């Protein structure tokens, strides 16, 4: 019987081509739980992005499942222990979209510094208001990077070219490695106190969820601008909205939300907040890389061959 590969989210056409000849490729809307569980009943592999929850219930609904493939980086929507306990392999594409994600964080940072989104919206509404949208320069500012992993490093390297002073909080990184990058490692308290811009580049884990909440936002440098193109919930949305309302935080660029998809958030009320619907990895290049990488891994795994690290 031809193995069934269930595609639960948008996948690059090039990736579908890799699978088309050898497998029975089926499509399902991964956010439609009933359809997902029904589709999993016959699936040998499933390919998801970030919107599909592959939890213990999903794994239990898939007696033939051999591979869960995440076309991207974060694995917070996959219950890896539940899959592993059933002998199901979990693969992702850990470098596929890191450049795109870092560039999205920088795009948001610059848009927040220069009020690009709100000035654009106002002009299209017929308002030519130059004074209202006066921004700030990035050069000479202190930029705090929370999480100096693959994306945090790419973000820091690019921000260095803007003439910023870079500090980072990441307890799992050696100070010498940070120093090589021209980044000073500091504690979270110091980063919050000193940064003019903060950008978060963490995975969502029990440890990082709510890492920047009401208490932390009370200690930030007044006028800080905050970027989150990593995961919703790392920065508490309600606490951030309160800090924006008080003016302690001067702006925010937010790509990810605690609940996704969403069309309502306390952050949407602010003119100085730029929001995007989880677009960090949404580039042609990143989608090709992520899709091809996981399609190749699924092919190897279903043939019983060795799957190298992506
Ligand atoms: P990575 O694993 O290379 O880096 C994560 C870093 O966070 C590591 O250096 C780690 O030491 C650090 N870290 C972990 N726990 C920490 C803690 N409690 N405090 C401080 N630092 C901590 O991952 P990456 O490739 O840089 O990706 C980071 C995250 O970005 C992903 O997990 C994913 O959730 C998110 N992401 C979002 C998009 C998007 O579309 N917006 C795209 C790609 C990735
Ligand atoms: C990721 O973790 O790779 C990102 O959230 C991108 C995505 O899946 O869209």
Automatic annotation (TrEMBL):
Give, as one word, the top-level EC class. Answer: oxidoreductase
**What terms describe the molecular function in GO for this protein?**
NAD binding; phosphoglycerate dehydrogenase activity
Q: Which organism is it from?
A: Pseudosporangium ferrugineum
The leader peptide range reads: none
The protein here is known as D-3-phosphoglycerate dehydrogenase
Q: State the family it belongs to.
A: Belongs to the D-isomer specific 2-hydroxyacid dehydrogenase family.
Alphabetical UniProt keywords? Amino-acid biosynthesis, NAD, Oxidoreductase, Serine biosynthesis
The answer to whether keyword Hydrolase applies is no
Q: Which residues fall in a coiled-coil region?
A: none
Record function comment:
Catalyzes the reversible oxidation of 3-phospho-D-glycerate to 3-phosphonooxypyruvate, the first step of the phosphorylated L-serine biosynthesis pathway. Also catalyzes the reversible oxidation of 2-hydroxyglutarate to 2-oxoglutarate.
EC code: 1.1.1.95
**Pathway as given in its UniProt record:** Amino-acid biosynthesis; L-serine biosynthesis; L-serine from 3-phospho-D-glycerate: step 1/3
Catalysed reactions listed for this entry: (2R)-3-phosphoglycerate + NAD(+) = 3-phosphooxypyruvate + NADH + H(+); (R)-2-hydroxyglutarate + NAD(+) = 2-oxoglutarate + NADH + H(+)
Q: Name one GO biological process term.
A: L-serine biosynthetic process
């Amino acid at each position: 019987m031809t193995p069934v590969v269930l595609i639960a989210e948008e996948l690059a056409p090039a990736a579908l081509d890799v699978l088309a000849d050898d497998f029975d490729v089926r499509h399902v809307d991964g956010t439609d739980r009933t359809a997902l569980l029904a589709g999993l009943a016959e699936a040998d592999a499933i390919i998801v992005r970030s919107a599909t929850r592959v939890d213990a219930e999903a794994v239990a609904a898939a007696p033939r499942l051999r591979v869960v493939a995440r076309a991207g980086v974060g694995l917070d929507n996959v219950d890896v222990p539940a899959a592993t306990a059933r002998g199901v392999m979990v693969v992702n594409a850990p470098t596929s979209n890191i450049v795109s994600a870092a560039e999205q964080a920088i795009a948001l940072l610059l848009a927040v510094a220069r009020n690009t989104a709100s000035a654009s919206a106002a002009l299209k509404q017929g308002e030519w208001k130059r004074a209202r949208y006066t921004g700030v320069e990035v050069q000479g500012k202190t930029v705090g990077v929370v999480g100096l992993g693959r994306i945090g490093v790419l973000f820091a390297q690019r921000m260095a070219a803007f003439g910023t002073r870079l500090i980072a909080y990441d307890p799992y990184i050696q100070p010498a490695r940070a120093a090589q990058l021209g980044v000073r490692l500091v504690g979270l308290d110091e980063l919050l106190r000193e940064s003019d811009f903060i950008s978060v580049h963490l995975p969502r884990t029990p440890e990082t969820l709510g890492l920047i909440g009401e208490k932390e936002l009370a200690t930030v440098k007044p006028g800080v601008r905050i970027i989150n193109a990593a995961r919703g919930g790392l920065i508490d949305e309600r606490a951030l909205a309160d800090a924006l309302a008080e003016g302690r935080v001067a702006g925010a660029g937010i790509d990810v939300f605690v609940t996704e998809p969403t069309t309502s958030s306390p952050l949407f009320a602010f003119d100085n907040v730029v929001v995007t619907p989880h677009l960090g990895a949404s580039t042609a290049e990143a989608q090709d890389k992520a899709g091809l990488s996981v399609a190749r891994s699924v092919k190897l795994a279903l043939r019983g061959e060795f799957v190298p690290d992506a």
